[in-house]
Write a structure and sequence with these properties.
Helix content: 40-55%
Largest sheet: 5 strands, parallel
Number of domains: 1
Distance between the termini: 53 Å
Shape: globular
Number of helices: 13
Strand order of the largest sheet: 1-2-3-7-6
CATH superfamily: Thiamin diphosphate (ThDP)-binding fold, Pyr/PP domains
Bound molecules: thiamine diphosphate, magnesium ion
Strand content: 5-15%
CATH class: Alpha Beta
Radius of gyration: 19 Å
Length: about 325
């Protein structure tokens, strides 16, 4: 199949150019954030399990770049990239994951419960499929208020077999809710290959059965994800109802930090590594003269500095005070 990026004429206005560079920069920021967090978590600095999204940046950034700042997202347990792309400061996210008082939720949520209302982020979620009804509810609430906001829910291939997906897709279709269902299909749920637990080869059929427009997309191609998401978002905003996007992607690391991934086929892993979304976008930017190698190197340097500063601040931040333990528990 022809590359979506080559197949479509792209405008080269300054605004478009800035958009493509911003997408690449955000993917880079997410990758460097996750790499840094991997070593911090491996050294025991982050309480609880930490699930990294390196490899899935094109899906995170492609979808969220198609949203307005006040559109809602509901994320899942592998959600740091969603939080960053939606606008949280790296320092506030890192502090949250490290359980520090300066974190987005004062260190109470950690990696799997980052709730960020300032950026209309309904949170990462430790319950597989748990974000789906939150997004459907936010979409219903927005429509009831007469707002133009829409909602996106991200979930993994493992969540496809949760009843909630089908209940919410059915209701969203019947009520034409402004919601976009995004399955980040990375081929595995924990340590089990998708094909061993998921019946039916055509994942898009899960949306089509509800008459929801459903598409399979190369989730390693940020521009392909952005194009498909822009269409889905426009449909939702125009009152035409939900869409379902299956983004085929790959997590470069284990299920969580510390997973040795012995269940993965190494040839398959190498093939996916060659499709790294950052390499693909960098090559496209250079080929189409949106940036040259030195501009990309400068961007790398800026991002590395931003992460260094954020991590140093998060590490130096105080632990939450024990006297605050019960705050926010009862309203
Ligand atoms: C309701 C529920 N069931 C089981 C789990 C345990 N669990 C955590 S992550 C996970 C796998 C999820 O796989 P997928 O949805 O494909 O997401 P991925 O980890 O691949 O990003 C499971 C089964 C859980 N957290 N919640
Ligand atoms: Mg998965």
């Amino acid at each position: 199949m022809k590359d979506a990026r080559a197949a479509r004429e792209r405008k080269s206005s300054p605004a478009e150019s800035a958009r493509y560079l911003a997408m690449h920069r955000m993917m880079l920021l997410i990758r460097r954030f996750e790499e840094t967090l991997r070593s911090l978590a491996a050294g025991g600095a982050a309480p609880g399990l930490v699930h990294l999204c390196a490899g899935q940046e094109a899906t995170n950034v492609g979808v969220i770049s198609a949203l307005a700042p006040d559109d809602y997202i509901a994320s899942h347990h592998r959600g740091h990239g969603h939080c960053l792309a939606k606008g949280v400061a790296p320092e506030a996210l890192m502090a949250e994951i490290l359980g520090k008082a300066t974190g987005v939720c004062g260190g109470r949520g950690g990696s799997m419960h980052v709730f960020d209302p300032d950026h209309f982020n309904l949170g990462t979620n430790g319950v597989v499929g748990g974000g789906i009804p939150l997004a459907a509810g936010a979409a219903l609430a927005a429509r009831t208020r007469g707002s133009k906001q829409i909602a996106v829910c991200f979930f993994g291939d493992g969540a496809l077999n949760q009843g909630l997906v089908h209940e919410c897709m059915n209701m969203a279709a019947i009520w034409k809710l402004p919601v976009v269902f995004v399955c980040e299909n990375n081929g595995y749920g924990e340590f089990t290959a998708m094909g061993d637990v998921t019946a039916g080869a055509e994942l898009v059929a899960r949306g089509e059965v509800f008459d929801i427009p459903s598409r399979m997309i190369d989730g390693m191609d940020v521009l392909a994800v952005f194009d498909a998401s822009s269409e889905a978002v426009a449909r939702a905003r125009a009152g035409e109802g939900p869409s379902f996007l299956v983004c085929n992607t790959w997590r470069f690391g284990g299920h969580h930090v510390g997973d040795r991934q012995e269940y993965k086929d190494s040839a398959e892993a190498r093939a996916w590594a060659a499709r790294d979304p950052l390499l693909k976008m960098a090559a496209w930017l250079v080929e189409n003269k949106y940036a040259d190698e030195s501009r990309l190197a400068e961007m790398e340097e800026q991002v590395a500095r931003e992460i260094r500063v954020a991590v140093a601040a998060a590490r130096a931040a105080p632990e939450p005070d024990a006297s605050e333990l019960a705050s926010h528990v009862h309203g």
